[in-house]
Amino acid sequence: MFQINGDKPNFVTKKKVVKSDSEESEAEVKLSKSRKKPSASNTATMFQTGGEKEKKKEKVKNNKKKGSAKADESEEENATKKKKGKGKKGRKEERPPSPEVEFDDLEEFVLRPAPEGMTVKCKVTRDKRGMDRGFYPTYYLHLDNDKKVFLLAGRKRKKSTTSNYLISIDATDLSRGGDNFIGKLRSNLMGTKFTVFDNGLNPDRALRDLSNARQELAAIIYETNVLGFKGPRKMTVIIPGMDEDSERVPIRAQSENDGLLMRFQNRQMDNLIELHNKTPVWNDDTASYVLNFSGRVTQASIKNFQIVHSKDNSYILMQFGRVSEDTFTLDYKYPLCAVQAFAIALSSFDGKLACE
Length: 356
Known about the structure:
Blueprint: E1 2-3, H1 40-47, H2 52-73, E2 102-103, H3 106-111, E3 119-127, E4 138-143, E5 150-156, E6 164-168, E7 181-187, E8 193-198, E9 216-222, E10 235-240, H4 260-265, E11 272-277, E12 281-283, E13 288-290, E14 305-309, E15 312-324, E16 327-333, H5 338-349
Antiparallel strand pairs: 1-2, 3-4, 3-16, 4-5, 5-6, 6-7, 7-8, 8-9, 9-10, 10-11, 11-14, 12-13, 14-15, 15-16
């Protein structure tokens, strides 16, 4: 139903050496030597459910890669902790846009995993104009290319006991009962745990076989900061695994006791994949925690993060970060889809007094 660049994408990563400056504390970038990227077959196996023999083989290969990757870890820098100052202007050339992405059906595209071997590069804008948008801003997701194709819009519901974001494929229709409703993000009372749903029906109103019941697309857990120490956020993301055909395994919980959050809590990880945000490294020169965003992020923020698989820290499934006051970069890869990535980003905007 949708095609990306016609054929398989052909990416060539050029080495760039960007001179850092002490005045550019928030936009500091030092590119390390290029490392080999996981092949499409390796990636598919890493996120498949089952296939233990193949997973063990891939683990040996990944361990070899990690040895050389650690040598370059200290050189990969881009500020991620929130602090004062602005990123240096005139560096748009460092934010390579997304290749052409074509699709016939927007609803299918935003729910489908990104093609293997491709990074879908997007931009999130936050609109706080209006009487109440300071408390309930609207967020928009566009492809980060010349056409700036609209993908999704999201906004927090006003009359809800917990944080509840509606996600729509129409920038002007963010109603729960509309035809353009594509999913939602719901938090617990503390605002530390989130669940992402598609547009299926509540299990209580669905058919007996749950064939039309809503699927849980992801769960996001923020580690609580009980002692109040300052530092980067810690995130855990749980997503359904992929089958041999690279299709998402449907997770249709009949109740909250059977959902992704409870399964993770009980360590019932069948058909599930556990992800984490990449741990930033403290840099004494910039007095901040740093990550390498390869020029895609230009301002420091506590919201900046990268999501990786524990078996391969070099494969970044998603990265999100600030480029201006109300503009953010969002890039995602297989097996994430646009709705999953956008919802994870929305969770980072939500107030988390228990996590700061």
